[in-house]
Design goal:
Layout: H1 3-22, E1 33-36, H2 47-51, E2 58-64, E3 66-67, H3 91-102, E4 106-113, E5 117-118, H4 123-137, E6 154-159, H5 167-178, E7 187-190, H6 202-205, E8 212-213, H7 233-242
Parallel strand pairs: 1-2, 2-4, 3-5, 4-6, 6-7, 7-8
């Protein structure tokens, strides 16, 4: 082997190692996740600007605040729609999703939120909507894709209203789509309130596979503000280790 060829192979190996070292690893115990999209501080920058920060590991786009009739709201990050439609069309976010993923970040879409019109009336409706999600945001095909050809890494269920029906069926059907594409890892996350069990996701958390759970330890009696008296991290830690379908849930 010529020295120049050897150097080429060494550089290729180094590049591979660097890429692997920065890629999001759900099994890591120090991942940093942040929600993006609501401009709550009134100075929200582009999605890509946050992904340029090495601290970030998971970006959760917030929110799809309407389903099964799809409505999206990302405040100042996207205000354009498809012609003749109220559905947001966000080519700038689409480009930033690809940039984030090139930096090893996972980008997932949060469904629900504190305000909006959402929920399922049956398991059948929920399963059908999983097909819609796959076609609009993942590897499927849809006439209107809010993020064009960008492919998300998963979804987050931030369910704070609209009932508790259908979510286990939704996850089951979406995971069936996930396994049809072995080219990448897809994720399911949840964002329950801290009162245990969660009023809307409690039964789903006990019956469906979640990769990550972002417990809302704020705005409730059991939040971090109540430490040490009422702060109930231990309840959720026990759930993760003993009741969760995925005993390695983060």
């Amino acid at each position: 082997m010529q020295p120049s060829t050897l150097l080429k192979h060494v550089l290729q190996v180094q590049l591979i190692i660097q890429v692997v070292s920065v890629a999001f690893d759900v099994n890591c115990n120090s991942n940093y996740a942040s929600y993006y999209g609501q401009n709550s501080a009134r100075n929200q920058a582009t999605l890509g600007s946050y992904c340029a920060d090495a601290t970030e590991d998971v970006i959760i786009l917030a929110f799809m605040n309407g389903f099964p009739n799809v409505e999206l709201n990302f405040a100042n990050a996207c205000e354009t729609t498809f012609d003749g439609s109220s559905l947001l069309h966000c080519p700038n976010i689409a480009a930033d999703i690809k940039f984030c993923q090139s930096k090893g970040k996972a980008v997932i879409l949060s469904m629900g939120g504190a305000a909006g019109s959402y929920g399922f009336s049956s398991d059948s409706q929920a399963s059908q909507f999983a097909d819609t999600m796959w076609n609009m945001f993942f590897k499927g095909t849809a006439t209107q894709r809010p993020f064009d050809d960008a492919v998300l890494d998963g979804i987050d269920l931030d369910i704070e209203g609209g009932g508790a029906s259908g979510y286990a069926a939704f996850i089951s059907q979406l995971r069936a789509h996930y396994v049809s594409d072995p080219s990448k890892q897809y994720y399911i996350a949840g964002a329950p309130q801290c009162p245990f069990p969660d009023a809307y996701l409690g039964s789903t958390l006990n019956s469906a596979w979640f990769d990550m759970v972002f417990v809302q330890f704020y705005n409730n009696y059991c939040g971090l503000n109540a430490y040490p008296t009422w702060f109930n991290f231990a309840d959720w830690d026990t759930w993760a280790k003993t009741q969760s379908v995925n005993k390695n849930v983060k």
